[in-house]
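Colleagues,

For the teaching module next term, I've prepared a clean inverse folding example: a structure given as tokens, and then the sequence designed for it. I'd like students to try predicting residues themselves before seeing the answer, so please don't circulate the second half yet.
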């Protein structure tokens, strides 16, 4: 007996998967210039070769660098310390152990994505996703609020902020945190202008029409994070193939006797990987970091290979 497609699709988990939501090329905010080669005095905005090829352009003033990962691999990026953007919509989530959460839990980190148009040598292009995390997400939101305020004042509230550009840039690196949990960050700064000029900042009629026509799709993109789900979209990742076959499970398992973390990754057993990460944390196991990395790899593998 075959159910109708309407009945089968109702409340389908497949339809809720992020890969069926709108997707766009992305830029990632890099907090530390030391992770780039040649080394940079501050962090900034990086777009990988794959992403700027898809976009067909890269930010004005960007320079070629290599972004180094903890596993020793590198990937080519175009790097800039300033962006001129026309912001569209945002979405935010708390992230922990490679998973987006519905609410904050201790140890989770904020992740913000901004869908925007960006200025390139080819003109304003996009939409592009800009991904920032942690404290810099608060700083970017502060800049977006200031932009909306400037537009409202200059237009007497008669035009949306999405129709106008403004600049953001990476600031002077500084230490944040306290005690042994201090870390260096590069803040994201809103570039103040002496007086906001809506005529000069206007994106033009053609792009304004495009934004109007696609606004429902942009809103759908923003709403996709209303639900918890796998993290990873919009972040530059290592191109190396991770292997965890030399890491045995830190506890006895009836499902995976004499098993390794690689066995869980190969089986796409996300539940078992999440349980392993949780067990490691509860028992103070030094396998926790490797288990979290294995979970991250498995989630990316599923996203990349799931059929449409």
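(Answer key — instructors only)
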């Amino acid at each position: 007996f075959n159910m109708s497609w309407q009945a089968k699709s109702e409340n389908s988990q497949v339809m809720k998967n992020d890969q069926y939501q709108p997707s766009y090329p992305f830029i990632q905010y890099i907090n530390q210039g030391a992770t780039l080669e040649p080394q940079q005095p501050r962090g900034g905005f990086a777009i990988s070769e794959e992403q700027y090829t898809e976009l067909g352009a890269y930010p004005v003033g960007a320079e070629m660098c290599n972004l180094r990962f903890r596993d020793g691999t590198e990937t080519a990026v175009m790097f800039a310390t300033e962006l001129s953007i026309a912001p569209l919509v945002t979405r935010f989530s708390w992230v922990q152990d490679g998973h987006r959460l519905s609410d904050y839990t201790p140890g989770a980190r904020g992740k913000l994505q901004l869908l925007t148009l960006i200025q390139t040598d080819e003109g304003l292009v996009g939409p592009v996703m800009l991904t920032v995390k942690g404290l810099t997400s608060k700083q970017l939101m502060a800049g977006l609020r200031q932009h909306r305020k400037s537009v409202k004042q200059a237009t007497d509230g008669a035009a949306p902020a999405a129709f106008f550009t403004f600049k953001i840039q990476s600031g002077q690196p500084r230490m944040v945190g306290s005690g042994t949990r201090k870390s260096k960050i590069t803040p994201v700064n809103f570039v103040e202008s002496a007086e906001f000029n809506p005529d000069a900042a206007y994106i033009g009629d053609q792009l304004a029409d495009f934004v109007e026509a696609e606004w429902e799709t942009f809103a759908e993109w923003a709403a996709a994070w209303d639900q918890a789900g796998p993290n990873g979209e919009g972040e530059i990742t290592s191109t190396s193939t991770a292997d965890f076959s030399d890491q045995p499970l830190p506890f006895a398992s009836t499902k995976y006797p004499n098993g390794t973390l690689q066995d869980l990754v190969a089986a796409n057993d996300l539940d078992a990987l999440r349980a392993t990460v949780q067990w490691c944390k509860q028992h103070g196991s030094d396998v926790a970091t490797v288990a979290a990395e294995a979970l991250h790899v498995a989630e990316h593998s599923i996203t990349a290979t799931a059929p449409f």
